[in-house]
Amino acid sequence: MNTRVSVMSEKTHGSTKDFKDLDAELPQKKYGARPELTTKQKLELSKAFGIFDPRGSGLIEQRGFMLAMRALGFEPKFSQVDELIAKVTGRAVNETLDFKDFYNLLNLVMTGDDSKDDVKKAFKMFSSPETGVISLENLEAVSHELGEDISTEKLQEMISFADKNGDGVIDLQEFIAMMERPMLE
């Protein structure tokens, strides 16, 4: 299932600004809920696109996309940009990008993209190297290290939520399954 997001596109006519809603379709994130861009970030993207589309054609060159990324604080290499464009748009490099492509590409860059490797790294941060599972003791240690005062009961609820085989701990497969669940609002 895809998520539809309205984005404000800025067009300047004289000294007044006219906003037009654009729908950008974002691919659903495979692991966990997709982080959302803030309104400020969405406006920054709109302004950045407008800078590299001074004629208002609705299209920018790949070079403009790379410059926009740099203006937003990213330092990509040409090969990384080529790979990202091919991955997200499914098109060859050196083609023009419309605002929807631009938004989807930068949304992916700005919100991150969880991969299975990232989920495994997160699991290793919580789990015990000796046992290879996340126990109540592991969660208590992490809670203490972060200076969070979470009751043992709440931590046990976290374990019980993810523990599908009933062994009292969370193994890697249970952790991955938990991360794939949609987040409740």
Automatic annotation (TrEMBL):
GO CC terms of this entry = myosin II complex
SMART domains with a match to the protein in the record: EFh
Q: Its domain of life?
A: Eukaryota
Q: Which GO terms describe its molecular function?
A: calcium ion binding
Q: Which residues form the EF-hand domain?
A: 114-149, 150-185
Q: Does the keyword Calcium apply?
A: yes
Q: Which PANTHER family match?
A: EF-HAND SUPERFAMILY PROTEIN (PTHR23048:SF59), MYOSIN LIGHT CHAIN 1, 3 (PTHR23048)
Output this protein's name.
EF-hand domain-containing protein
Q: Keywords, A to Z?
A: Calcium, Muscle protein, Repeat
* UniProt cross-references to InterPro entries, sorted A to Z: CALM/Myosin/TropC-like (IPR050230), EF-hand-dom_pair (IPR011992), EF_Hand_1_Ca_BS (IPR018247), EF_hand_dom (IPR002048)
Asked if Repeat is a keyword of the record, the answer is yes
